[in-house]
Amino acid sequence: MRSRRVLVSVLTFVVLAPVVAASAAEIKVKVVDPQSAVVAGAQVELFAAGSETPVAVQDSSPEGTVVFRNVGSGANRLRILAPGFAPQAVAASSGEITVSLALATAAETVVVTATRGPVPSEDGGASVATLSSQQLQVMNPVAADDALRFLPGAVVNTAGQRGGRSSLFVQGGDSTFNRVIVDGVSVAEPGGTFDFGTLPLSEVDRVEFLRGAQSTLYGSDAMTSVVQVWTRTGNTPVPELRFGADAGNYGTENGYASLSGANGRFDYDIFGNQFNTAGSGPNDDYSNFLVGVNAGAKLNEWAALRLRARHDNNVSGVQGEWNFNGQPLLSPDLDQRARANNLFASLELTITGPSRWTHRITGFEATLGRANTDFVTDPNRITPFGEVDTPFAEFARFNRAGFDYQGDYVERSWAHTTFGYEFEDENGSVRDTIPPPPTIAHGLRLNDALYGQQALTLGRLSVVAGVRFVHNTTFGNVGVPRIALGLQVLRGGQIFSGTRLKFSYATGIKEPRFEETFGNGPFQIPNPNLKAERNRAFETGFQQNFFAGKVVLNATYFNNLFHDQIEFITVNPMTFVGQYINLEKSLAHGAEVELQARLNSKLSWNTSYTYTSTQILEAPPGTSAPFAAGDPLLRRPRHSAASLLSYLGKRWGANLGGSFVGRREDSDFFGFNIDHAPGYVLVNAGGWYAVNSRMTAYVNLENILDKQYNEVVGYPALGTNVRAGMRFRIGGD
Question: CB count, 10 Å around CB of 168?
């Protein structure tokens, strides 16, 4: 009897083992780009045949792979969402499969910043412009401002030349209304002050520029835009050493190197860059040194850890205001210096699963050191208001540290939920060491936020709705909602390939700058009761596709109403002592028209025009121009335009970029009665040629037309400048 049972068991095993093995099949997916290079960080979703509910969701490894185990033996399908490419859907069964992604049309391009997760741009409910690593390689920008100025809706104002403070104005908002994120770290000073002219883009893989109020997902400072930057990930089994150098006029020298790779569970990219230039005038030099690392480890099948860090140290001469729209009314300052020392670091733990879940826990820290000194009184810097060159030595240090949890749940192929919690410790100090008397101000904020968002694609209708609840030490508790709708009203044919209507409503918040809340000196009284600056924003417009989506026309009307804007008022007119308070209200509205064309797999062209009208609605009593009620906001041009033509081939690449900025209101603030900056046109070009697979020659030309202009009144911009060099590659096969 017992022997019979054993025989039955053996026969059962022999018969059922293949069935069990088949039901527990494995699918290994490798994701590559059109040139067969691996694509890391792509979101790969697995569906059973006929089902809209994903079985599992994973991100591709630095080697471009994803493995799904214990998969049913029937037919399955995959959906791949990789930033910068078109969404891809393929059938899959057990075994290995390689998915080659296609370059996307403008409407299909997958972006991340719009929803904090990969989504086709037309379903993201927001206007997003991108720069790929290939485009950045051709542009070869010294810093972020050199690249952003050629994107739609971006108005860049740099005070002078390389190293001069560079600000970004979007949709009529202030220069502090931008959230800037580098590798998951918010890198601006608390309150949104950020210098785009000293952010190197060395080893950057992708830049995304999101326009509109986005405080629901990104919190304080995201009043009119979000700029997000990602560092390149190592992806070659054989270590790859890349290095190069270039030089140009004005004593410009630039050198860089990186070592990267991916093998088994680990990947890495270690890099460095040194840039120096003398500038075109006295005390116009700039130097920046950057080192960084992006390293990852696959802990097991469902958990991965990634460390990213960037440290840069820069110094520049500051000429001060002296040449006003071609009029050298003052002599440049010969000894003022500005220094910055920044560290941005993040550690991210990604957990995929169970099933349709993805969890990201990120610890982050940004430390920003600033020094601005002027120890000598230069002659010939006397204005109608008197001597303007007096000694000072200002030092500031800001720190933003905390952690963020983000959970993503893919309910269906058409539904995606995102939610999270963020904690941030902000502290900073500002001091002036030259009496009388020395001033020291220190501030501390502990901020918490909960956020949630639901994204739905229901046939022709897409919906993105979310809300954030914020507790800020300075302004208390605030709720920040946002909803965006998109409706495809016509599917169209070959020439007119679809018409889509869009609408969004959102509110934005911005915490005060530390000096506004905690500033304490001989002329300032601290105000710990300052409220957040706020924005009520809505957008509406349409998207028209042509020629099967190869050409896309976007037209958007935007309307921003800024409340509780902070202004300094004098409390005692005899001593000039004052305080920052919430008093101002202003309106900014206008239209953006953008034409995006992918003419073929190698050639693309994006061009845009923006009209912006601004007006101060409420101002402190007794305020005079240019800050009185009825005045336009400074440095916001009514008319601006940008164009970027890119050719990205296998043997060579080139681009041509143009930026037009119209006349805009400004002030010399010295009593010379200069009230505007004239318009200007900036044209840049660049190109590279692969001598062989290991050696590439390149050249970049900026301000080809040699235009003499001021982006900020009093600060002359750089004339025509040329850089040429070589880059080399060893290993990486």
Answer: 26
Report the alpha-carbon angle 20-26-29, nearest 5. Answer: 165
What's the 3-state SS for 586-615?
EEEEEEEEEEEEECCCCEEEEEEEEEEEEE
DSSP string of 675-729? -EE--EEEEEEEEEEEEETTEEEEEEEESTT----EEETBEEPP--EEEEEEEEE
What spatial distance separates the first Cα and last Cα of the chain, rounded to whole Å? 64
Give the per-residue pLDDT at 662.
97
Give Cα separations from 26 to 45, 47, 95, 150, 225 (angstroms).
14, 14, 6, 46, 43
* SS3 category, 387: strand
- Identify the H or E element spanning 518: helix 514-518
State the residue for tokens 């797999």. Answer: 601
Structure tokens at 109: 């391009």
Sheet of strand 25-32: strand arrangement: 65-71, 25-32, 95-100
pLDDT at 13: 40
Spatial CA neighbour of 121 closest among 592, 513, 578, 457:
457
Q: Which of 131, 154, 152 is nearest to 141 (CA)?
A: 131
- Could you tell me the domains of the chain? 21-100 (2.60.40.10), 227-323+332-397+410-464+480-731 (2.40.170.20)
Instruction: Retrieve residue 41's tokens.
Output: 């960080």
User: How many beta carbons lie within 10 A of that of residue 384, not counting itself?
Assistant: 9
**How many residues does this entry show for the chain?**
733
Contact status, residue 226 vs residue 168, Cβ threshold 8 Å: no
Phi and psi at residue 377, to the nearest 5°: -85, 110
Residues of the chain falling short of pLDDT 50: 1-23
Distance between CA atoms of 541 and 293, rounded to whole angstroms? 41
The whole-number pLDDT of residue 17 equals: 40
Q: Shortest CA distance to 363 belongs to which of 285, 309, 439?
A: 309
* Euclidean distance between CA atoms 282 and 332, whole angstroms: 8
| SS3 of residue 383 by DSSP | strand
CA distance 638 to 11: 83
Tokens, residue 326: 């071609």
- In tens, the pLDDT along 577-621 reads 778 888 889 999 999 999 999 988 899 999 999 999 999 999 887
pTM of the complete model? 0.94
Whether 647 contacts 135, CB under 8 Å: no
Give the up-direction half-sphere exposure of residue 319: CA atoms within 13 A in the CB hemisphere: 29
> Which residues, in sequence order, are CB contacts of 724 under 8 Å at separation 6+?
246, 247, 248, 697, 698, 699, 700
CA–CA dist 657, 644 (Å, integer): 4
DSSP string covering 59-96, please?
A: EPPTTSEEEEEEE-SS-EEEEEE-TTB--EEEEE-SEE
C-alpha 579 chain-centroid distance: 33
What the block records as the tokens of 53 is: 């509910």
Q: Distance between alpha carbon 158 and the CA centroid of its chain, in Å?
A: 18
Neighbours of 265 (CB within 10 A): 13
pLDDT in tens, 540-566: 999 999 998 899 999 999 999 999 998
